[in-house]
Specification:
- The structure is a homodimer.
- Chain A is mostly helical and about 210 residues long.
- Chain A is built from 12 helices and no strands.
- Chain A has one domain: Tetracycline Repressor, domain 2.
- Helix content of chain A is about 70%, strand content about 0%.
- Chain A starts with a helix and ends with a helix.
- Chain A binds a DNA duplex (30 and 30 nucleotides) through helix 4.
DNA sequence: CCTCCGTTAACCGTATCGGTTAATACCATT
DNA sequence: AATGGTATTAACCGATACGGTTAACGGAGG
């Protein structure tokens, strides 16, 4: 990959990244044409090939960038430090939303790339994704104090359920293709508040009044 | 569309449908080649063109079939008659699972087709989807008796949350591409049970013991 | 006027597309 | 064995789209 790419104005860099995320998110690797990416980025195909010597290189660069900025944003948001469950979910989602504001298609791209089957890229994707996802769920659960929650609740199930609900909410927007981040934030806030009144002992007591 | 298609053995018909669902679910309409569908269905491209005169016809046929069998399965499962909320969700998901067992990619196809932008098909998709989704949520909520649920709960939010969670759970499987329907059913059952203990007044009382 | 450099139009060889055609393979009837 | 019909396909067609290259354009600095 041509280092001159980093010399580009930030804005141009982002529009190229976003064009790549967008096109690769919609179709298979093989069926995502470089010409389409160049068009979406507002540059010529030749120039795109000037910055990235071939399609594979661009694809893997996008993948690495995607992983890098996600981890960056996550740590910067402090999502990993938070001890309070809802607090850390809040920070995490905050980070995700900030990301999606800058790179609307980064989520869809990440999922597609992760499950991409094309032998030209799949191996390297799988190899490099070590840190990228999860692991945190289990550790997060251990630290929870059951006393904070309503009696008898299955905390693991609760966590899984919350995760699915936020993913489901996210996907509703992603699929629709309308990236209204503000609306997403509102929805997610509502979810968090709802969970607090339902799952937290304290929340329950207040709601019953 | 050639009526001889219905003369085919059920098994062959399904394999063609599934091939279509699969390929069209993975890529845009324009970038989903007929040859690939034929290959996946185990027939020649020429024969596929014998049953469906052109790509557009096959696509719209798949869409109609998708809508038809979904409604069929839903009504057959009795999901629409049920008055109890969890009961109707149970029946509904049961129907969905049965569908996905027969047509693993029908879900992904439906979503993609619904949001397809290609002018060659998008208009007709939008036109014909009248009954296909929603409407039921609002009516279902009106019939709920707040006395059955824990006091102070926002029923609309609860419903939305449950919907998102099941969608999120579903998508996790769909995205992964491994259609382990039995595992999905188990997960969904667990969700339902969890919700009952958390949201239902009766469930809460039992759990607190 | 020259040179450098970001940028692109135009090009190249090849692969793939939607769709057709003419010929096969198959099978029941005579 | 010859016949006729039907299911199925290999081979083909013109058009287009692909990844990647090249030669040239245009503007800024000297």
């Amino acid at each position: 990959m041509n280092p001159k790419f980093y010399g580009l104005p930030q804005e141009k860099q982002q529009s190229i990244l976003n064009a790549g995320f967008h096109v690769f998110a919609q179709n298979t690797y093989k069926k995502s044409p470089m010409s389409e990416i160049a068009l979406a980025a507002g540059i010529s195909k030749a120039l795109l090939f000037h910055y990235f010597h071939n399609k594979k290189e661009l694809y893997l660069f996008l993948w690495d960038t995607c992983a890098r900025i996600t981890v960056e944003e996550m740590t910067r948001s402090g999502a990993y430090e938070q001890t309070d469950l809802f607090g850390s979910m809040d920070h995490g989602m905050q980070a995700k939303l900030r990301l999606m504001r800058q790179y609307p298609d980064i989520g869809s791209f990440a999922v597609r790339a992760f499950y991409e089957k094309d032998p030209e890229v799949s191996a390297e994707i799988q190899k490099s994704m070590g840190q990228y996802l999860q692991v945190h769920a289990a550790k997060k659960l251990e630290k929870l104090d059951p006393e904070d929650f309503i009696p008898g609740i299955d905390l693991q199930m609760m966590y899984k359920e919350m995760y699915w609900a936020s993913e489901g909410c996210l996907w509703e927007y992603i699929q629709r293709g309308i990236m209204d981040i503000d609306a997403m934030e509102k929805d997610f806030r509502a979810l968090l508040d709802f969970w607090k009144t339902v799952y937290l002992r304290k929340g329950r007591e207040e709601a019953e009044k």
